[in-house]
UniProtKB/TrEMBL annotation:
Organism: Mytilus galloprovincialis (Mediterranean mussel)
The name this protein goes by in its record: Death domain-containing protein
Gene3D superfamilies per UniProt: Death Domain, Fas, P-loop containing nucleotide triphosphate hydrolases
Domain Death, first and last residues per copy: 659-730
UniProt GO BP: signal transduction
Domain of life of the source: Eukaryota
CDD domains (alphabetical): Death
Amino acid sequence: MDNDFLDDKWKQWKQTLENDLKTHKSPYLKDEMYRFKHSSRNDLNKNIGNKETTIAFIQKMSFNDNEIEELEMSATISVEKTTTTEEIRKDKKINPHHVVSKEHTPESPVPSKTLNVLQEEELRKSIFDEIRRGEYNVEIAPSDLVDFGGQKAFDMTHQLFIMQEGTVLLLFDGSKDLDEPLPEYPGKNITSADILMHWVNSVTTYCTDDSGLQRIQFVATHSDRYKGNFEKRRKELVMQLTTRFKKHEIGSHLLFDNLIFIDARNKDDKEIDRLKDQLVQLAFSQSSWGKKMPLIWVPLEKQIVDLKLRGTSILRMEEIEKLNRLNEDLMMDDEKLKFFLRTQHAIGKLIFFDQDELADFVIIEPSVLVNALRSFVTDEMFFPSENYHILKILQQDGMLKTTDLMKLWNQDEFQYIFQNQEYKDFLVKILLHLDVLVKPKIDYRDVNFLPEYYIVPCMIQTRLDNDYIEKYLNTNKSICMAYVLKVQMVPPCILFRLIASAVGIWPLKVYQGRKMIFQDIATFVFDETNEFSIIMQGGKIVVYFTNSNSIKEIQSPKVASVQECLTIAIISITEFYQLHSRSIDDLDNTRFDNLFELKHGAACKIPCFVNREEELQFPKAGLWKCQHGQIHEVDYLWYWDSKKAMADISPTVLTKKPPADLLRKVSFAVGIDGAKLGLNLGIESSVIEKMVIGNRYNIFEKTQKILDYWEMLCYSVTVKHLVDALNNVGGRGLETIVEYYR
């Protein structure tokens, strides 16, 4: 932000911008609009053959090199979020070709450091005067395009960028019938129709307001193979799409009646022009089009746009605040500034998380996060060959060493993003927040662990290949419950994020020499004889709680604590996606739909479950007959209920101070979670650090000292405080309290 950065090149830019603002004309913008209108197909043709995956935000309605490569695949998903960022007054009859183009490529020069493009008094004054006179009008409507591949690897990442108000392009190979098995999936009988249906369901999972649903535009490729019978083939594809999707619950939002059928290799293909025009028309139909934005937003919005044009990707919050202060009477107070940033985040113009350390930075170029993700969350065909060993470990165990992550981020194509270690650390924190990366819980008995690595659940491709399910997930050793989601399709990202949440709390079980985390199941250690597994089965996420000896040794408080932690996690996950798929007008709505129902059941070969209303009618000591004709004890259904689990402790006991012998027993049960427990009990981290690191006692004695310190803090410590803290760290020790007071 210092004037030291105003080099000769910057001075030339500044002078050009000053002149442009005075005349309302910009040769740069005119050149860009002319290039988009007349030459985008040439750019397209020129880039054919690029083998890289670039998941990029681009501000033009045309194809980039990755889209060409993806046309060779069975399906591609693109999300176009059309917004009115700088709008004060906008004519809906705007020329559809007036679009500013800005795209990072690996060949782009490394961006300059942050520059305040409105720092000069005269420059800022020219814009402010226009605003105050009501003459500031925007004739250019930026449109952001997020380009994703249709491969399974992108299931996790695409959900992070789906917005309720936007347009989605689904590209598929028009040379193949929709029900024709695809060669990319040998032996699996997967068709284009299957993949298209998957993405339609996935895109609309959290968009509950029908009026704000995305429009999904289907685009067929490979029209060059039907030069003699183009229209006939188009009609055949429309008929096939109609048969498959005519009864879909959002059928009115699926656009294929006048199917766009492109030849991406032909620079003169008129269908690409028709696609661009269609996107513009769809932009006009969005509810956000023409929406008036607060006048006070304009200066800061303009500053951010200009910084992006000059290559700046990330700003510190203090730099945003400094830019805001320069805007005189159009400066926003802290509350309005935060709302501005949240709104810009909601419409996809920038990325801002108003949470703890994440609020220290603002990503003003969202492609930074997309590229940080695609450096390791990508399909095998796009992974750099020289780092292939990293991919194999990811696919096998989901493990990504911190050194390997830095190695991927140090590749030349990412240098413009990760300009310094501070930015890398910030992006790691965001990926941890989004559960893409997760720091694993380490079992203190595991002497071979490598502490410096992350788990990436969404990249694991190995399926369970041992006898664990047959041996343990049965009625002799396990009980089960299920989260039944009230959506047409359960996006895999929910399972990935739920597993990620559990990985951060409980250690993974090691069975037959390897950690129990696979594409279809993850198993966690609760204590020496108890564990639990998370599995996706159809439209349900099933959780099994297992005792290695017998179902009769399962203790209710342990089961209930697992349920409570996982339920809190899945509520947080579904609320995150609901919030990020809302319309602008609904950002301050604090109400979320409950997208799942919790059912308790029995671990038959195919697990069976009881409706909650039916369960409440069972006598606690009775029996119930499942759909398979087997008899089960009702009591086990209640084990999952945390309120029932603590019912044996009277309210009077919960208000009492825990005795020393109880704290001693709890310290043995808590084990490696002593430090976390201390933080949840309100002990300062510096005190805990001295106890845990500064002294050499065994792990149980450390926890004992933490609990003793807490007990002496004040006279108001209670059993209830201890119970709540134990719930927050995974539930170990709750059964000790129940048994103590029983």
